[in-house]
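Protocol step 4 of 5: obtain the predicted structure for the target chain.
Materials: sequence only (see below). No template structures provided, no constraints applied. The aim of this step is simply to have a reference model before the mutagenesis design in step 5. Sequence pasted as it appears in the construct record:
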Amino acid sequence: MRSLEQYRDLVAQAELIAVAHPLRYRLQLGLFAALGIGCVGLLASLAAASALFVIGLIVVSKSILLIKLALLPLGLAYVLGRTLWFRLPAPQGRRISPDEVPALFREIEHVRRSVRAKPVHEVLLTPGFNAAVVQTPRLGMLGWPRRYLVIGLPLLASLPPYQFRAVLAHEFAHLARNHASFGNWIYRIREAWYRILDALEPRHGTLFGWLTRFFRWYAPYFNAYSFALARANEYEADRESARVTSREDAADALVAVYAKSEYIESRFWSEFYGRAEGQPQPPPEPFSEYVAALRSVPTEQARAALSGALARETGLSDTHPSLKDRLGALRSKPNIPLSFQLSAAHTLLRERRQALMQEFNQVWRESLAGPWQERHQYLVETRAKLARYESTQAERELSEQEHWDYACSVEVLRGGRAALPVLDALLSRAPVHAPAYYARGRILLDQDEERGVADLETAMQLDESVREPGSKLLYSYFYSRNQLSRCDRYRGMLSQAAHERRVASAERSMLSRGDLLLPHALPSTELLAWRAVLSSEDGLKRAWLARKQVRYLQAVPAYVLVIEFQPLKWVSSATLQRLAQSLPDSVSCLVLNKAARRRGWRQVAKVEGSLIFASG
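Step 4 output (C-alpha cells):
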C-alpha cells in the first residue's frame, strides 16, 4: 500500500464484496491466502532441495568449499519454515465447572443450543469487561481445536440477564458459523507474513531483498482484504443474537458494553488512581469498585459516554465495526443504559458470586500493591517539589532545569492546562528546549488544538530521540480526524524506526570476527552498578566489557560482556539471559560465556581496560 487512503479504499471495496457476495468474498480470500501459503511452501521446498543438492555435491566432490554455497538455501528454508509454524496461546482465566455454578452452565447450554453451536471444552472467568469464544489448535497448523468460552466477571455483574444472553448468543454465533476456525486460519497467515518480514529485513543479499519487497507488497494487501472478514463476522453474529433474543435486547447490550467501556476509560481510571496521593495502600476491594462503577454509571455520565461512543468511526485497524455502524445494521436506535436491580451475576452465579468477587479482589489487591505504593511515593515527592519551587520563585528566578521540573510537577498534580503557562514561560527563556516543546505539543493535541503540531515538529527536529513518540502522537491525531493524507508522513517515520530497531537488534545479537570493538568508556560511577550485578552472580570468576561499533541506532551504545565462571559450573542460555536482564536499565548488551565463545573472549579481552570484574 502506498498510502492510507489506498488502504482504506481497498478495505471498503472488500467490505462491499463481502456484503453483496459473501460466498464469493470468502472464496477469493481463501484462494488469496492459499496462494501466499503455496508460494512460501514452494520457496521453502526449493531452498531445501537446493541445499540437499549442494550437500550431495560436497559428498561426491569431497570439496568443503561448497559448504558456504549450501548455507544460503538452508538459511532461507529455515527462516520460511520457522515463521509459518507457531502456536496460538490458550486463553488465561479462572476455570469454572457446572458443579460450581450450575445456573450459568444451564444458560450457556440453552443459548448454545438455540444458536446450534458446538460445545465448548472449558469456561473461564476473567477480570475483563468482555466475552469471547476462543479456539486454539492443539496440533498447530494441523488443527484439532480446543474451544474456550471466556466470560468477564465484570460483564456478568454489570449487565441484566437478558443483555448477557444477547452477548452469549453473539459469541456462540461466531462458533456456529465457524468464524473462529476460518478467522484463526486467516489470522495465522496474516501473522506469518509479518513474521517473515521481521525475519527477512535484517538479512542482506539479492534473494532476501527480492523476497522482502514481495512480502512488503503482499502482507499489507492481504491484511487489508482480510479485514472485511472480521467485520462481516461481527454483523452476522449481531443478527444471530437479535434472532435468539430480540433486536432491542441485542442493540441494548451493544450500547451498554460500548457506553460503559467509554465511561471507564474516560473517567473511572483517572479518578481511581488519583486517590493514590492520599492513600499509601490500594483500596481493600479494588475489583468490587471497578464492577460497581460499571454497573451504576450516573445517567448524565452515561449519556456523555454514549455520545462519545457513537461519535467514534470504524478505524482502519478495527476488526469490530463502530457502535453506530452496528446499530445501523440492526436498524435500531441507541437507548441510554438504564439501572436494574439484579445483574446476570446475581441470577447465574447466585451464592458463588461473592466468593468469586473476593477471589478477584485479592488478585487485584496483590498486583496493585507495589505500583500503587510507588505511585503514592511519587505523588508525595512531586507535591513537596512543587511547594519548594513555588516558595523559591518568591526569592529568586528558577534555573532552566528547575523551571522544567516545576512544569512537569504542575502537569502531574494540576493537569496539562495548568502547565501550559509554565511551559510558555520556559520556552520564552529557552527557545531550543526540546522536552518543553514536546510536552506543550502533547498537551495541546490532547485539547484538540492543532497548534500543538508545530511544537511537536520542532521537538522532533531538536531531539532525534523524540521522533518516534512524536510521530506516534501526530499519526494518532490526524488519524482520529480522518486526515489520512497527513498520516502518511508519520507512518513512514514509524515504519523506518521499527525497521531500524529490527536490524539494530539483529546487529547487536551476535559478535563476528570483523566487528570493531572499542573501550567501554563508562565512568567508574556507572561501572559500580555493573559490578554489583556481577558480584551477586554465584560462581562468577571474571568479566570483560567492550563497546561494539554499530551501524544502526548509534545513539544507544552496544556493549559486549564476556563472563567466566568457576570450572565445572554449568552455564545455560537462561543464565546468560537473566544476567543480561539484570544489568542497568536502558543498556543494550550481548552477554557471552567465555567457555563457549573463546574467540569472542579474545576479541573482547584485547580491548584496553575491558576487565571490569575479578572475584577474590
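Step 4 remarks: The beta strands are 94-96, 122-126, 131-137, 145-152, 517-518, 540-548, 558-565, 588-593, 611-614. The chain has 23 helices and nine strands.
Proceed to step 5.
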